[in-house]
Amino acid sequence: MSSILEVANKASQQFQQKLAQIEDYMRNKKLPPALREKVKEYFRMQHNEGKLYDETEILETITPVMRREIQAFNGRAISSKVPLLNSITNKSFAEEIAIELKPSYAFQEEILIKENTVGKEMYFILNGIVELFVSRSMDSSAYVTIGDGCYFGEVALILGCRRTATAKTKTQCVLYTLNRDSLLNILEDYPATSQYMKKIAASRQRRVRHFLNPSSTKLAPEDEIDLEDSKTELVGVAKSLLFNKKLQSKNML
After folding, report:
1. Are strands 121-127 and 151-152 parallel, antiparallel or unpaired?
2. Which of 12, 76, 90, 154 could form a Cys-Cys staple with 122, CB 3.0–4.6 A?
3. CB 13 within 8 A of CB 5
């Protein structure tokens, strides 16, 4: 027990020392107060228990098998929320993905990806709301709104195209990122899941193209509702968005 308390106290002390170092750096650089508070809040979000651990160093001291088990266990929260990862048939795939996921935090109104840029990673939303905009909707309402359990950014990675939309946080978000090489390498071992994700990505791409130019891109029946997002808690929102778009189209005729 005394050893456990000693380790916990040491981690807390390291956290306070790191925070003091960050504050000293920001004072030296004369950063504006608002930005300084944002940096400190981000640091606290990463270490919400007020403790600082070098996870990489810890994981390197154990066997590869135990390391994979810990990483898979740490990814259980996001795996339980994302329909693609929560399926019994995708259990092995989900474990491989969980090992490669990196936690990320974003504040309200932060742009995560930009339309027409090269895609290097995709995102899974653990908590929070993200709005997707396309060039025609940037000055008005979002093209679509997604939240807990949804993923985005995979279209460019899987289809080899540029980003089809801009993603901007509507609330503070807890996210997990997966880089392009890790995703594609894992998908090579899971051809059925690879084909399914390509199907979802192609459908999302067609919906964006149809939104921008309805006459040039026709939607397939399976495009009308996102097969992944509609399985999350936003299913009601997804249906209402579809209904509103159909209603707007009828009013324009």
Report:
1. antiparallel
2. 154
3. no
Q: CA dihedral in degrees (206, 82, 123, 176; nearest 10)?
A: 180
Q: Phi and psi of 153, rounded to 5°?
A: 90, 0
Residue 167 is encoded by which pair of tokens?
Answer: 């993603």
SS (H, E, C) 146-190: ECCCCEECHHHHHHCCCCCCEEEECCCEEEEEEEHHHHHHHHCCC
Which residue bears the tokens 């403790």? 51
Task: Work out the angle at residue 134's Cα, subtended by the Cα atoms of residues 106 and 34, and round it to the nearest 5 degrees.
Answer: 30
Query: Distance (Å, rounded) from C-alpha 29 to C-alpha 86?
Result: 45
pLDDT bucket at 37, cuts 50 / 70 / 90 = confident
Global pTM value: 0.78
> What would the two tokens of residue 29 be?
């650089």
**pLDDT above 60 for 53:** yes
Please write the tens of the pLDDT for every residue from 63-98.
Answer: 888 888 888 888 888 999 999 999 878 889 999 999
Beta strands in 37-150 (DSSP E): 102-106, 111-113, 121-127, 130-133, 144-146
